[in-house]
Amino acid sequence: MRRLIPILLAGVAALTYGQSAKAQTAPAAVVAQQRCAAPDYSGTGALQWFLGINPRDSLVQVWCRLQQVPGNVRFNVLFLKTQAHRSWDTSFQGANNGPEKIVEIVQSLIPTADGPVKDDKGMPFGRVLQNVVQLAAEQAPDGMPLGFASTHPAARELVLWEPLVLRVKPVSLGGQEFTLKILMKPNLGWLAYGLQDPRYDLRFKGWAKRMDTGTGSLFGGGCSDMIPSCEKLGDVPTFHAPWIVEQVILQADGEAMTSSAIAIANQLVTNYSNFLPGGNGMGFFDEKEGRGTLTITDEVSQIEFQAEGGPSGTSMIKITYGELKGKNSVALHLKEYGDRYRAAGAPQKKPPSVPDSLGRL
């Protein structure tokens, strides 16, 4: 973990639009036009992912990396748990998209006023806000322990705890059209960085009545388990979205893709030969049926190549990039950092008010 903290700190260069998260009712940041840039980790000696995407990357950094994708594409944003998504036909190259653009896109999908749960295409974006949770809650919607003590300065902060998927197609590889999927998950450690340094912070606004706030004292009830301190939220409170890369997938489905599968596997072997025993990590490939596997790892993250097929050849090619989440991983560092941040605000046990008698035993 020697290089991990400096590298994480270097990764905030593109995150200059946020504001300090001292009050969840603070106004959203005004985003100025900026140049899109993401950190270059190619000199770290670690296994490189597609487009330079990295498990240290936030939403903004991933967006900036996507600007490398050539040609006309369909870009899609999916709230994974709610299954609400929207697509745009666009071209990244030459568009001069700044980091503020993805913030505008995501905010445009989140209700900030009363209205129908579903949009005109039947997508339930109104339900996304049901996954906003307060740090004082016992746990997040996915079971992640929270339980910030009431004395913690961040206990009343709101967080959108729902995975986000960015999808782009087509991405051309070896003569085949692939769909690129980038899975991002909320992370307590990344949130802890953002709550202490605005360069890490990503915030949005949402209509409070779409959140799970409970019935409130007006109706003789109380606040919900999700937002146990629901008083004084306001109509459109601010919430944090600490998304960070979990996994990257490139997948193509079709027929007779064997030659492409072989070309892609060979390219992976060439590109990552220093991570392969003897320079050859092809675990298995049946050229007759177009089936094969390949795993490349540096013991921190790994790339998995998989080709499925049959008598007509390869019918599916999939490349998956992910962390192993063991020693020296970003995931482990962020877990430990998040745990320390949560514990830092817990009430301290007071020492006895009388002199200690240990020496009299």
What can you see in these coordinates?
By secondary structure, this protein is α+β, with helices and mostly antiparallel strands. It folds into two domains: 4-16 and 31-39 and 49-246, no CATH class; 248-323. The chain contains six helices and 13 strands. The chain has helices spanning 4-10, 59-66, 100-109, 188-196, 258-271, 330-344; strands at residues 72-79, 84-91, 132-134, 158-160, 164-173, 176-186, 203-205, 238-240, 243-253, 282-286, 291-297, 301-310, 313-323. The strands form three sheets. Strands 2-1-5-6-9-13-12-11-10 form a nine-stranded antiparallel beta sheet, covered by helices on one side. A two-stranded antiparallel ribbon has the order 3-4. A hairpin with a 4-residue loop joins strand 1 (72-79) and strand 2 (84-91). Helix 4 crosses helix 6. The chain is globular. Mean pLDDT is 87; it is low at 1-7 and 9-32.
Short structural description:
By secondary structure, the chain is of the alpha+beta class.
List the helices and strands and how they pair.
Elements: H1 4-10, H2 59-66, E1 72-79, E2 84-91, H3 100-109, E3 132-134, E4 158-160, E5 164-173, E6 176-186, H4 188-196, E7 203-205, E8 238-240, E9 243-253, H5 258-271, E10 282-286, E11 291-297, E12 301-310, E13 313-323, H6 330-344
Antiparallel strand pairs: 1-2, 1-5, 3-4, 5-6, 6-9, 7-8, 9-13, 10-11, 11-12, 12-13
In whole angstroms, how far apart are the ends? 44 Å
* Low-confidence spans: 1-7, 9-32
Number of helices: 6
**Total separate domains:** 2
Q: How much of the residues is beta strand, in percent? A: 25-35%
SSE succession: HHEEHEEEEHEEEHEEEEH
Number of DSSP-assigned strands: 13
How does the helix and strand content classify structurally?
Answer: alpha+beta
Helix coverage percent: 10-25%
